[in-house]
Write a structure and sequence with these properties.
The chain has 4 helices and 7 strands. It is of the alpha+beta class and 157 residues long. The protein has one domain: Gcn5-related N-acetyltransferase (GNAT) (Aminopeptidase), CATH 3.40.630.30. Strands 1-2-3-4-5-7-6 form a 7-stranded mixed sheet, sandwiched between helices. The mean pLDDT is 95.
């Protein structure tokens, strides 16, 4: 059974271990260090199983009512077990409570044939995200960025 809790500094080592478990997505030490710092800088939550972090998510609000999944990672041993979906549903509820209309995420675009990121794109599309556009210049001139977006339902009374 998993539990989602707000990020605390005491989870840092466990979150680093989660990142290290999936180097095909998180294989750049400098970028990983930035993601770990972002867990403290932005609203972030951790999926816990048996007292150990197994996933993490960070949510930002770049513009009013427009929320971004800035960072999402799940430990390899927990892939295909619903942890990523659970984390996404959690931040969707957070965004809706804060008046969010859209949830978006950036990932490696389909112009790059990387099979792992093809799985990432399929994961987000199964969660109700749709491709909005691919940019060949958003990150740099060598890394295509795909922006996926999901319309959030307003909170019901």
């Amino acid at each position: 059974m998993t539990e989602i809790v707000a990020y605390e500094q005491s989870f840092a080592r466990g979150c680093a271990d989660v990142l290290a478990s999936v180097p095909e997505w998180f294989g750049r030490p400098a970028t990983n260090a930035e993601y770990l710092r972002d867990l403290e800088r932005y609203p972030s939550w951790i999926a816990i199983a048996g007292g150990v972090p197994i996933g993490a998510i960070t949510l930002t609000e770049p513009l009013p009512r427009s929320f971004e999944v800035h960072f999402l990672v799940v430990a390899r041993a927990w892939h295909s077990r619903g942890v990523g979906s659970e984390l996404l549903r959690f931040v969707e509820r957070v965004a809706v409570r804060q008046g969010g209309r859209w949830l978006h995420v950036k990932t490696l675009g389909p112009s790059d044939p990387d099979a792992d990121y093809a799985r990432t794109r399929m994961f987000y599309m199964k969660q109700g995200f749709a491709p909005l556009f691919e940019s060949l210049t958003l990150w740099d001139y060598h890394t295509p960025a795909l922006i996926l977006v999901k319309t959030l339902a307003p909170a019901t009374s």
